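[Target chain]
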Amino acid sequence: MTSQIQNSPPPHKTLVFSIALNGYQWLYQQHLLSHQAYAKKNNYEYVVISKPSISNLGMECCWLKLVLLKAALVNGYQSVMFVDADALINKNCPPIDEIFVDGKYLYMANGYTGRFNSGVMIAKKSEALINWLNKLILSRCQHLPSIDSTGWGENGHIIHFSKQVNFIKVLHHRWNNTFDEKLNDHIRHFSYGPMRTSKLKTLAHHVLRRSLGLLVKYVFAKQGVNHVLASDVLQLETQRVIVNYPQFQSTHKYRAIAR
């Protein structure tokens, strides 16, 4: 289903949001504070998704970033910036308006593998982008070629479906620095890879991932669900999230999941 962008915009034209569920809201408190400070400095609206604190999607809750990005655009924001909870926005980070060029609606940087890293995504309102996000969400259970796959989550699908899309602009990796410790970057992303040097954080991630995996298997085995990313599951989880966050709610009946 193609969503129509509404004509009545929210009070702020730009939204910055992050998702911090499943323990990330405690593990990366300082990083989230940097997001809040950046938004306040530039008069952007900011929200961190931290409810419900435990997601039934487990680690696959990262798919919510695409559903919520779409919802924010449909709900009238002119531009939206998503930042992973484990990314730190430095004080020198400029306003996102400085990167915008005509005809480009999605802005991402390459990670340490040389492929897009979805830890920072900046979007401008566009029907073409809404339709692309619908396609991407629909693809969530699709098998990917090994050259694009990241093993789990939405990032591999973004890599795969971004090829030859002319409204996507590649940003310098200072906007999402996952590997260059010496770079004077705007956003430093401590994702899995060269930047994650803390043994304690690595252990915490391992424990969280294993615990969440066991929890999700138990919950969905009881419900007889075959795949955590089945349409009804993602739809239900989206509704559990947006009930707490008006930034993603529509004046019309909300339909976040492409069918």
Remarks:
- Residues 73 and 125 are 6 Å apart (CA to CA).
- Residues 14-248 form a domain with the Spore Coat Polysaccharide Biosynthesis Protein SpsA; Chain A fold (CATH 3.90.550.10).
